[in-house]
Amino acid sequence: MWSTAAVQGGKFPFPQPLFDYWLDACQRGILYWDTLYRRGEAYLEHCESGKPPVLVFDYRIIMDARELPDPANYALAAIQPPANCPPTDPAKRPFVVIDPRAGHGPGIGGFKMDSEIGIALQQGHPCYFVMFFPQPVPGQTIESVAKAEGHFLKRVNELHPDSDGKPFVIGNCQGGWALAMLASVAPELVGPILLAGSPLSYWAGVRGKNPMRYAGGLNGGTWTASLAGDLGNGHFDGAHLVENFEKLDPANTLWKKSYNLYAKIDTEPQRYLDFERWWGGHYLLNKAEMEWITQKLFVGNELVHGKITSHDGKARVDMRNIRSPIMVFASWGDNITPPQQALNWIADLYDSAEDIRNNEQTIVYCLHNKVGHLGIFVSAGVANKEHSEFASALDLIDVLAPGLYEAVIDDIAPDAPGQEYIEGRYIIRFEAREVSDILALDDGRDDERAFEVVKRVSEINQGVYDRYVSPALRAASNEASARLLRELHPARLERTLVSPKNPWLWWLPDLAAKVREQRRPVAADNPLWLWQEQLSGFIVQSLDHYRDLRDAAQEQLFRAVYESPQLATLVGVAPAGEPRNQALTWETRELARLKREALDPSFEQGTLADGFVRLLLYVSIGIGVVDERPFNAIRRVMRDVRHEYPLTLMQLKDIVRHQVALVRLDAPRALRGLPLLLPDARRRHQAWLLARDLMALNGPIPAEHQSRLNEVAKTLELDAAIHAASPAARAEAEPAVLSPVPVEAAPAVSLPVAKPVSGKTVSAKAATSKAAPAKPASAAKPSAKTVKPAARKTTPASKPATAKPSPAAKTPATTAKPAAPKPTSEEIKPIAKPATRTSAAKKPAGKANGQAPGTPPAASAPGKRGKA
């Protein structure tokens, strides 16, 4: 098309689309380079200011680890809530965020308002941030850092002695494995821990994917990290780690990131500059720290095998020692920490979910379908969905029965029952899983055998380097040479060349300002712009194809070298690899025996609350889905009666875990002990009716659970007609449970996840297992039961008809029936405001968040999942 205005004006005709595109390209080019100039300017200012954390929140340093006896370049900061957040509630569980020290500076966990820190502040939790400084302390080691973080958590516990639970600690990426080690050696300092995108099983992965795990073997082991440390005069430059990350996706590094800025030059610069401020803030590590990380973790893979000890040998890192719930958040779109590296440590430590329960450990994992590694920390969608739901369900997770669960997060259906007990737009449920489900996410673990050879080759090369090369390099290097090498690194050079340090670019800011005043963006349907978009897509496809060919070639080379039986024999490694061993040690078996002996008297001893919890646990054996709605209702009731019956979350957790251990150890004996824990006939009646109502919230009670209810009724000498009554009789009995007038009642709890136990006493291995309450999902699986507290009787209960005692009740433990004791602070108190009873309709099970490798993500119903 020729310009009509140009022709009518007597000017030389010119194709208008070409002119528009040419003018826009010139303006975009100037604005693009001006944005890079501003990036360089921000980089210089960031360096001159000491590279502070890139947090968007105000903070106050309350503890500096550089002043500790074993100093480290870490500090604990208290986050100040902004004006748009509610005031901090000191009684709420504090949050502690540990950012990764993987080449960048701290702050990614609080990079924006919709972040891990922002979610905690919006819910009124006190929030603390573990930050670090650009230069490590001389002589600092990973052990020094671990000790510093232990001091930080001790300080947080001291600042919140009245909080309802220990601190919730989030470890991002490499902050996750540091947190796992700390929780292993000092489990009393932490509450639930969240490992977000954290690698713990470093050799794991899928063939044809995850090429980063091959880097150590292709480089010949860990000696290259020592080389970089020697050239840096004892310091390892974090820019090397950033460069490794960028090599994983050459299309993004070489084209997409820059083109996205160019194509969206009118809207993208600020977001680009904010991210680049963190991405370009490279920090240093001591050579000893980086050597420890590469030798012990990435190549050695010693964390999950319990081979990491303190320098004096007094402390050993064993992840089986963690007592708090462990939450793992990973993503199928993460090419740095794939789900296998985030989860396979579970299979390394445990043979089965039963083994996890026996060790009294609770593990919850959540798999995102597509978000990348950085998106786990910086995506607003992830923060507002996964992190927000984890934060809201913390108390529930803390009282979950020991075992393995997958967290599934869905949008709330319009007709979902119990919406008054749901906060926000999502609902979270926890589905019981087995270790075999974790292994199913992998394509087999035979490919990890080659890494045993890598480890041995690395040790040989490291020894040669340390003896013959390192002394010469350390003698030749100095701080001046190390500084020069750092300044010439491409990651820094590209920023300083386009910055105020370059005198040849003095004209760029002024010209960019004039361009903004006369900006004329090209139309989106301009044919040349559309051609440019197609060309950009072709470049991305070409670079992705190059990446795939490169990764495939590297994998084939790795397998050809390290899967060779000849090389394995040459370096002294059995070609088949060392067998995995999760067998219980003598100490573990002996501890299980002692715990079983300690539990023995508790079958016939306990408070009314213990009895009520045991009744619920017994009748709910076999439920494998936990829903947040019943627990939220229970917490509401607990808050209503807190002045008369001050049952805290931790007390409820202890009661439930203790009673589940008894039920799993010997279910028949636990049942026979119920009459001693519930000696009063009226309370027995109330407890039984409440258990029946809880089981019936999601529809007809399954035959298996109805049978247990009948068995309990016989044991408690209740009228058998209670559970087999006609509808009229049931309606007559219902007010006794749902009456609004306060009566003495037992604390409502969520149903547990447990397996049927035979009449025989189980082994010592099973004796050590305790379980916390698990709540069924009313909108998940048909077999799940929604638990909801019900009010108690308001008038004196009529004496139930005497039923012939069952054989289980005719034991020495139940022949003498003691009088009902006066309720104490540890027993049952009146419920002032019972929760409204809501019936729950059955709903088909929702799809799990995670998908097995090679399986396309399950199609979601419209509006089912928010975008990350």
Oligomeric state, counting identical vs distinct chains: single chain
Helix content: 40-55%
Instruction: Determine the mean pLDDT.
Output: 79
Global outline: globular
Query: How many β-strand stretches?
Result: 15
Largest sheet: 11 strands, mixed
Instruction: Give me the secondary-structure category.
Output: alpha/beta
Low-confidence region ranges: 723-868
Give me the number of helical elements: 36
Strand content: 5-15%
Summarize the structure in words:
It holds the Pfam family DUF3141. This is DUF3141 domain-containing protein. The structure is a single chain. The protein is of the alpha/beta class and 868 residues long. The strands form 3 sheets. Strands 1-2-4-3-5-6-9-10-11-12-13 form an 11-stranded mixed sheet, with helices on both faces. The chain is globular and about 95 Å long. The two termini are 42 Å apart.
Keywords:
single chain, 868 residues, alpha/beta
Concise synopsis of the structure shown:
This protein is of the alpha/beta class. It is 45% helix and 9% strand.
Topology:
Layout lengths: L3 H5 L7 H33 L9 E7 L9 E7 L14 E4 L17 H7 L4 E6 L9 H18 L8 E5 L1 H12 L7 E4 L18 H4 L4 H9 L3 E3 L1 H9 L2 H14 L5 H11 L4 E3 H12 L27 E6 L7 H5 L1 H5 L3 H6 L3 E7 L6 H4 L1 H13 L1 H5 L4 E9 L14 E7 L2 H6 L9 H27 L2 H9 L2 H8 L10 H10 L9 H36 L2 H6 L15 H14 L8 H12 L5 E3 H13 L8 H17 L1 H6 L1 H4 L3 H16 L6 H13 L11 H7 L1 H4 L5 E2 L18 H4 L44 H4 L13 E2 L38
Parallel strand pairs: 3-4, 3-5, 5-6, 6-9, 9-10, 10-11
Antiparallel strand pairs: 1-2, 2-4, 7-8, 11-12, 12-13, 14-15
Helix pairs in contact: 2-10, 2-21, 2-22, 4-5, 7-11, 7-19, 9-23, 26-28, 26-31, 31-32
